[in-house]
Amino acid sequence: MIETRLRTRTHGIAYLLTALFLLMLGLLNLRYGFYGLFFIALAMAVLAGSGLAYTIMNRRQQLIAKGHFVVLCTLNGAVLATSAASQSQVAGHWAMPLLALNLLILPLREGLGLSLLLLVLMTLLLMLKAGTTEALAAFGGMAMLIGTGALAVRRYSTMAQSANDLTIIDPSTGAHHGRFLDENLQQEISRAEATGHPLSVIALDIDHANEVATLHGNDTLTALQRQIIQQLFEIIRAGDTLYTLSQSTLFLILPFTPEEGARVIAERIRRTIAERQWLPVESSSVSLGCTTRLPADSESNALIKRAHIGASQVRKTGGNSVRFVPGTVAL
To answer: Any long-range contacts for 161-164 (C-beta under 8 Å, 24+ apart)?
Structure first.
């Protein structure tokens, strides 16, 4: 499962369970006649539900979604305000699910910081209301929850990164597997929207690939593609990513690259490949299509299609050329 989908499910389930937990607390308070706490718990359950709705609406941008921090700060603040205003210490127990929720939803550093802040303030409130002994007991329980949760999140992040590296990158070529193109390009689009930096892509097709496979075999075509990939790694920059889509098709994501930069890189690739001798086919060339993200481009499919349109147009005219496709072209 790709990282964004996994986080979407994790965030959604965490918000849902928190909303149900708060709703049950509210119903218990209603049963015992604490109407004020019931309405506060109901409002917090609705807020947790809004976090679930935000997760669903931003399911393709979970890795950089900033609204979670606002939702969680509001929930944490509501718990503190309720605990401070209530004559009962029951509201202090509401902090428990939020401590775990902070760690599950936010990046580890932000989640840990918010949870520790809630821990300290809640402990001080309990010391003023219930005395040192009860406050220290609650502090110990909440601290153990935070520590366990932080270790679990840290371990998951490490294991996920290792698994991600093994599944995304082909160890034989160093290029990314094509099935991760849409996911990673969507992340770059979200990052470009957030920072305002340009983003360009290049689709690259090996010219006359079918003829090479027919005359020399599929193994030769695969070997040629691997040689071209190694050459591309000498041309592209450290932040650029290369994807293998098929035996004859490659794709490049170029962050922080405007139209002029994409044209220059694409032409450098075309010239380098056309001028070099390749074994065992001696010579080869590529058709390149490139495009740059416009402010209206919020979906990865639009950029991918435009780049492939450019490469297809070049192939139809004989190959060994570069075609830039602007965002105004109908797909």
So the answer is: 164/3
End-to-end CA distance of the chain: 29
> What pLDDT shows up at residue 1?
45
Crossing angle for the helix pair 132-168 and 3-31, to the nearest 10 degrees = 160
Rounded CA gap, 26 and 43, in Å?
A: 9
C-alpha span between 218 and 197 (Å, rounded): 40
Are 16 and 118 found together in one domain?
yes
Q: Which of 168, 184, 203 is the endpoint of a domain?
A: 168
Its pTM stands at: 0.57
Q: What's the structural domain count of the chain?
A: 2
DSSP label of 292: E
Type of residue at 210: N
Question: Does 161 share its domain with 310?
Answer: no
pLDDT in tens, 33-58: 888 888 988 999 999 999 999 999 98
Domain hosting 294: range is: 176-324
pLDDT, tens only, 164-176: 555 678 877 889 9
**DSSP secondary structure string, 21-54?**
HHHHHHHHHHHTT-HHHHHHHHHHHHHHHHHHHH
272 within a domain of the structure (yes/no): yes
Q: In what order do the strands lie in the sheet with 249-255?
A: 176-177, 241-244, 249-255, 199-206, 286-292, 321-324
DSSP sequence for 141-208: HHHHHHHHHHHHHHHHHHHHHHHHHHHHB-TTT-PEEGGGHHHHHHHHHHHHHHH---EEEEEEEETT
